[in-house]
Automatic annotation (TrEMBL):
This is HAD family hydrolase. Its cofactor is Mg(2+). Its EC number is 3.1.3.-. Keywords: Hydrolase, Magnesium, Metal-binding. PANTHER family: GLYCERALDEHYDE 3-PHOSPHATE PHOSPHATASE, N-ACYLNEURAMINATE-9-PHOSPHATASE. Pfam families: Hydrolase.
Length: 223
């Protein structure tokens, strides 16, 4: 097991880690394109995707607000567009392999969730078929703390009765998943899914212990 020999707990992010957000993100991008057209702008979804990539590459919060600020010239047009965009959370779907991976890992590790999510995370995990594998849930809406605040991580570790050195954080984002976990002494695995894969590592402080391209790689890595 090597570097994982002391690990008892695996903590997962949700969005773009266990759950694919590409479809709802594309959906809200198309809403933006349509509302921009209402105001006379000829913008394509690829234009919006490029701004999302810029946002993640530069660690800018709220990629959609960044895209609006960059692609819409007039504030009156921005004010028209912003309230007309709605993220459709029901369009999120678990990655096809996620349930099987959790089941296999759950035979050897306890599993927790540390995520920035809207209310109802436990119910959604149940709908996805994940809940029987998850022992601890620490989410922003319920705890009133949002990543990268290390207090959300501390809450999860305390609830798990787990020392940081006994845990791995698995997530897609350097800023929200890797950096705070490393600050506490947790081990880290970065998964290159979603727009989080465009965040660049800047040095030892944010360099994960391992980087993988998909969930299925966890089996060979951890078992």
């Amino acid at each position: 097991m090597g570097m994982w020999s002391d690990v008892k707990w695996l903590f997962f992010d949700v969005g773009d880690t266990l759950v694919d957000e590409w479809i709802p993100v594309d959906h809200i991008m198309n809403q933006f394109v349509e509302r921009a057209a209402d105001r006379g702008y000829s913008i394509t979804i690829q234009d919006v995707r490029e701004k999302f990539i810029e946002s993640y590459s530069n660690f800018i919060d709220s990629p959609m607000q960044y895209a609006i600020s960059q692609l819409i010239e007039k504030e009156e047009d921005r004010a028209y567009i912003r309230p007309r965009l709605k993220y459709r959370k029901e369009l999120e779907t678990p990655y096809p392999e996620a349930k099987k991976i959790l089941a296999q890992l759950g035979e050897h590790y306890r599993i927790g969730i540390i995520a920035n999510q809207s209310p109802g995370t436990a119910e959604r995990l149940h709908q996805y078929g994940f809940s029987s594998y998850v022992d601890v849930i620490a989410c922003s809406a319920e705890q009133g703390l949002a990543k990268p605040d290390v207090r959300l991580y501390e809450y999860a570790l305390e609830k798990a009765g787990c020392a940081p050195s006994e845990a791995i954080m698995i997530g897609d984002r350097i800023d929200n998943d890797i950096v705070p976990a490393k600050l506490l002494g947790m081990k880290t695995i970065r998964i290159l899914q979603g727009y989080g894969r465009y965040q660049p590592s800047k040095g030892a402080d944010d360099l994960p212990d391992c980087t993988i391209s998909g969930l299925d790689e966890l089996i060979g890595l951890l078992l």
